[in-house]
Structures are given as C-alpha cells and as structure tokens.
Amino acid sequence: MKILVTGGCGYIGAHTIIDLLENDYEIVNIDNNSRSTTQHINAIENQFGKKIKNYTIDLCDKAAVKSVFEQEKNIEGIIHFAAFKAVGESVQIPLEYYRNNLVSQINLLELVEEFGIKNFVFSSSCSVYGNTTELPVTELTPRQEAESPYGNSKRIGEDMIRDVAKVSKNNFIALRYFNPIGAHPTACIGEIPYGPPQNLQPVIMETALGKRQLLKVFGNDYPTRDGSCIRDYVHVMDVAHAHTLALKYLVENKNEDNYEVFNIGSGDGVSVLEMINAFEKTANQKLNYEIAERRAGDVVAVYADNAKTRKSLGWEPQYSLDDMMLSAWEWNKKLT
Ligand code: UD1
Fold first, then answer.
1. Does the residue 290 lie in any domain?
2. Fewer C-beta within 10 Å: the chain N or C terminus?
C-alpha cells in the first residue's frame, strides 16, 4: 500500500517512515529540505534495506506537487508533516510561517480532492489548547487562542480540514502531538536541531555534551508540584506508530466521522526539574542548570487525556521516560 509522506526528512516524519516500512507500506516522500537534508532518508535505507522514493519539491509549488500525484498512481493515504515549527521564530516572521504552513496545506488538500485520495492524516499540536485550565485535556477541551503564529497555523490547519471534510468524500484525521522527544532505539536517526535549539530535550543534550554552558529552567514559581512547568513528553516512536494506526483506522473504515481528532500524549505530566532528574539518572551525569525567569508564552501545565486514542486507534505507548532520555542521549552522543 503506497503512502505519500510530506516532510519525511524531518524529525517526526522520518521516525514515522520507519514505522510505516516495518508495517510493509511503500513510501513516497516530498520534502523541500529547507529545514532538513536527506540524511535521515539515507540512514533509514541503509539501516532497514528498503527504498524510499524521494521528491525534493516545495509543497507551495502546486504544479510540481501535482506532477507527483500524476506520476504516483494508487496513493492510498497521505501523512502531512511538512511545516515550519519553531515557536519563537514564528513570532519574528509570522507571514513566512503562514505562507509556508498554510499555502502548502491548501495545495495538498486541493490535490486530495482532485485525485480522490481517500485518507489524510495531519500533524497538529497540543499548542491548539493554549493556556488551558482543564487538565488533562481531552479532544473536546475547547481550543484557546494560539500563543504564536506557529500554533495559529496549526489551529487554522485543523479548521481548514474540518471545513473541507464537510463537503468531501475523503477521510481526515488530525493528530495533536504533545511533546515528542527521544530517538529511534538504534540511534540511526534522531532530532537534528535547525539553528540553536530552544526545546527542552535538545537543550538538555547540548548542556550535557558541553556545547552550552548551562540550562536555564524557565521559572520555578509556577503553581505546580515543584514550581516548574509541566508537559507531556512522548517517545517519537510512539508518536510515529500512532500515524500507522491512524491510517489503518481510516483504511479499515473504522472512523465514525470523516474528520476526527486524537491526542498523542503519554498522559503523564512531567516537570522541567523532573526531566533534569530523569536525564541525570539515565546518563549518570550531573547537569549544569540554574533557575531563570519565566519564558514568555509558556503555558503552566498541559498533558493529555489519551483515552480516545487508546480506545479507537488501539494505541498504547511502549516507551518510558527513561527510554526517551536514553535514546536521545545515544543519538546526541553520535551527533557530535
Ligand atoms: C512548544 C510548543 C509546541 C511545539 C513544541 C516543539 C507551545 C505552547 N508549545 O512546546 O506546540 O510542538 O514547542 O517545537 O508553543 N524549558 C526550560 N529551559 C529551556 C527550554 C525549555 O526550562 O532551555 C522548559 C519550558 O519552559 C517548558 C518545557 O521546558 O516548560 C518544555 O519546553 P519546550 O521543549 O520548548 O516545549 P513547549 O514549549 O512545551
């Protein structure tokens, strides 16, 4: 069964390709490599001995994308990862974020309709819940105003799909990722930060490797059990497998509606200080950190109610926080 992946050279896309290959899907990938290289694709082909058909095309170039749809017959489903994703950068260059993330998605959705592609899975984000007070968040928790143009592009992306689905014969799923971290257990691929990392896990790794002097814990005066912010960290291979299950769910016509949303989070809230402890325990190494000012735009706490995902998709996270830390550590040691 042939699946078109967009953004398969990126972090979550590449891990998902591994899971799809292991489940015998044939992969066609479109990526413009504006924030990535083909390194992951090459590594996967070497590690698993399977071919990935790769088109270096910008999704904003509709004619070029259409030519892929004309060449690649029998596309059973699309998983759309390709997007800019740096929250801070999106505040600096909002129009580039809106153009890149939304124009590419409009082009893709138009081609889904034109070519009658039955199944479409979209990468959304828990950022659509904003600064919610309802915890854990379920898929029915009202979305709040987005904290950044990046978050808003995901929110608008969901809305576009919802509206298209109302007049479409095709099926759509949005997966709202919480905080994906970790790397493939073989360390053949992992996260490659684009520019200086701002997310917690790559910052932990860079600090441990001496690439940066210390880690700043953004606030210890939040109303949480230790004062630092709480997030739902989920292993990237568990996130990857959720896409395979979402596709199967659609292909097997198990969906109740032609647009459904699922939370992809472990269900556990973990604080920044607990993350530091987990790293120190796993790597058997002290981390140099200090308490710093709160970071603008951070939500206090967010973690998933994943009951719907477990029940409908049969998804069951397989990896512990220690697994996430260990796999990220192995990958980052290799990356240096
Ligand atoms: C953000 C986005 C999310 C996006 C994700 C990955 C929001 C609300 N969330 O998640 O949509 O998918 O980035 O790009 O915009 N921290 C420190 N020190 C650091 C770095 C982080 O203390 O040096 C803390 C943060 O304050 C936060 C936690 O670690 O409490 C996690 O931060 P981060 O990894 O950046 O992810 P989010 O902000 O949760």
1. no
2. C
Please tell me the residue having the least CA distance from ligand 1 atom 26: 218
Read off the CATH number of the domain in which 177 is found. 3.40.50.720
CA distance 301 to 247: 30
Q: Which of the four pLDDT bands, split at 50, 70 and 90, describes residue 336?
A: confident
Residue 148 alpha carbon, nearest atom of ligand 1: 15
Is there a domain that residue 261 lies in? Answer: yes
Atom of ligand 1 nearest to the CA of 215: 23
CA torsion angle 115 116 121 126 (round to 10): 90
- Tally of domains within the chain: 1
Q: Quote the mean pLDDT of the chain.
A: 97
Once rounded to an integer, what is the mean pLDDT over residues 58-71?
A: 98
* pLDDT reading at 57 higher than 90: yes
Query: How confident is the model at residue 20, as a pLDDT?
Result: 98
Task: Find out whether the beta carbon of 215 lies less than 6 Å from any atom of ligand 1.
Answer: yes
Helix (H, G, I), strand (E, B) or coil at 289: strand
295 lines ligand 1 (CB under 6 A): yes
Does any ligand 1 atom lie closer than 6 A to the CB of residue 35?
no
Q: Which domain range does residue 153 map to? A: 2-183+233-265
- For residue 297, the model assigns a pLDDT of 81
201 φ, ψ (degrees, to nearest 5): -60, -50
Please identify every residue annotated as catalytic.
150
Amino acid, res. 150: Y
How far is it, in rounded angstroms, from Cα 22 to Cα 303?
Answer: 29
Q: Is residue 297 part of a domain?
A: no
Residue 209 lies in a domain: no
